[in-house]
Amino acid sequence: MDGFLFALLLVATAAGFFLGRCSSKSQSSPNRLVAHDPYLEGLKHLLNDQTDAAIDALITALEVNQHTVEMYFSLGALWRRKGEMDRAIRLHQALLSNPKLTSSQMQQAQLELALDYTHSGLLDRGEVLLKELADTASPVIQLAAGRELVLLYQEEGDWKKAIAAVNQFCDKSREQDNSHWRHMQVHYYCELAEDALAAPDWSQSDLSIKGVSGPPEAVCIAKQWLQQSALIAPDHPRALLLRSLLALGEKDEGASRDALRSIKLEPGLCMAAVPLMATVIGWEEDVWQRISDLYQKTRDVGLIPYLAESLYRKHGSQAAIDFIVQELLGQEGQQPIAQLIDVAGPLHYESVRPVLREILPFCFTCTHCGFQGRRFYWACPGCKTWL
Fold first, then answer.
1. Cα–Cα distances in Å, from 254 out to 190, 225, 260, 281, 290?
2. What is the mean pLDDT of residues 313-327?
3. Burial code of 149-158, b = ≥16 C-beta within 10 A, e = fewer?
4. 222: which of 196, 234, 258, 259 fits an S-S bond (Cβ 3.0–4.6 Å)?
5. If you average pLDDT over residues 240-266, what whole number do you get?
6. Helix ranges, the chain (H)
7. Over pLDDT 90: what percentage of the chain?
């Protein structure tokens, strides 16, 4: 379907230009032949399935006016989406060399070319164009360039520049809801804090035992980054989890518990937050209820061992075993485990506990694109969305 639409757009572009040119030429010079008109040549190449030659002919004969420039922008964007980066770059460079472009059209062409560069991996070239547009272009183009600059620095892992770019963008878009960009900005602060420390592996349960630590100067730097993040979003879950882990590393369990109690449990946080809460806070009624509510939303099998532990502590072994069997029977793909536990005869929960978290591990699931994995990610590897 993409190929068909692509060819259709090229045919429409070539045919439209060809007819327009023929009409204008017939009015000015009725007897002039158009056999060598570049648009006609481009259409011939296209009909002969010579796409590259058709593109060259159309770009060479580029004629821009208020009726055609948007078609060229659409064509360039289509090539970029299809991964035809060389063609998109050539088209937008040709547009920029055309003296008939208005100022706004020139800025749009610069923005499109910057996107071509960043999608091609030419981040330095894209950065130069985007910074110029973010400073000097019209308000609409400034905002678009500002958004792309944030994403460019994120792609590079240059967190300090990304933070500055978010500030610049938000200063220029005060009437808009910038909560999404501020949320990302806190992640950038957390990345800087983790870079200062021995970065935690959020997939490992032993984080809840030892926390994170490092040289005193590194811990001090990490705390400074987290303090700055708190000025933006004091309830950001990642920053709160990092504060809890830092407090654990310093043997301050009270501060660790306080940070954890401030976290709003959300579906994507199961793997990172629940083991820490269960170990540090303990099995208070509030913790059990929050994890139970989370399980009702997600049906994440990784939560079953924690809920079973809570039932065991309150109601004994049989209540925990019955809960495990009942829940696994209702989970697709987990029935064999439930049946194995059920037919093994009377079991004591303590004999099941050592392997429960191994056979029922957490699974990372991106709520945006559905990507799944056994490791925890703050930014989904599939769609790059921040949790």
1. 22, 21, 10, 9, 20
2. 89
3. bbebbbeeeb
4. 196
5. 92
6. 2-28, 38-47, 51-60, 69-81, 85-96, 103-119, 123-136, 139-156, 159-172, 179-196, 207-210, 216-232, 237-249, 253-261, 270-280, 285-298, 304-315, 317-329, 335-343, 349-359
7. 43
Minimal CA–CA distance to 70: which of 35, 97, 95?
A: 95
Closest CA to 376 of 115, 387, 64, 62: 387
| Terminal-residue alpha carbon distance, the chain | 33
State the Cα torsion 236-239-245-246 to the nearest 10°: -140
pLDDT in tens, 348-387: 888 888 888 888 888 888 888 889 888 899 999 989 999 9
d(CA 334, CA 321): 15
Cα angle 140, 141, 146; round to 5:
105
Return the number of other C-beta atoms located less than 10 Å from residue 183's C-beta: 16
Is 54:22 a contact under the CB 8 Å cutoff?
A: no
Strand partners, 386: 379
Tell me the pLDDT tens digit for each residue of 185-228. 999 999 999 999 877 777 766 666 677 888 899 999 999 999 99
The closest alpha carbon to 362, from 301, 320, 309, belongs to 301
Distances 230 to 29, 132, 190, 242 between C-alpha atoms, Å: 72, 31, 11, 12
**pLDDT beyond 80 at 26:** no
Based on C-alpha coordinates, what's the Rg of the chain? 29
Q: Give dist(CA 96, CA 133) in Å, integer.
A: 14
Q: Is residue 87 within 8 Å of residue 55, measured between CB atoms?
A: yes
Decide if pLDDT at 47 tops 60: no
| pLDDT in the model for residue 173 | 87
Instruction: Indicate the helix (H) or strand (E) that contains 373.
Output: strand 372-373
Distances (CA, A) of 10 to 13, 56, 100, 107: 5, 12, 22, 24
* 282 vs 262, residue with greater confidence: 262
Closest listed residue to residue 42, CA positions, set 14, 7, 13, 72:
14
The rounded mean pLDDT for the chain is 83
Place of tokens 């960009």: 181
For residue 30, the model assigns a pLDDT of 46
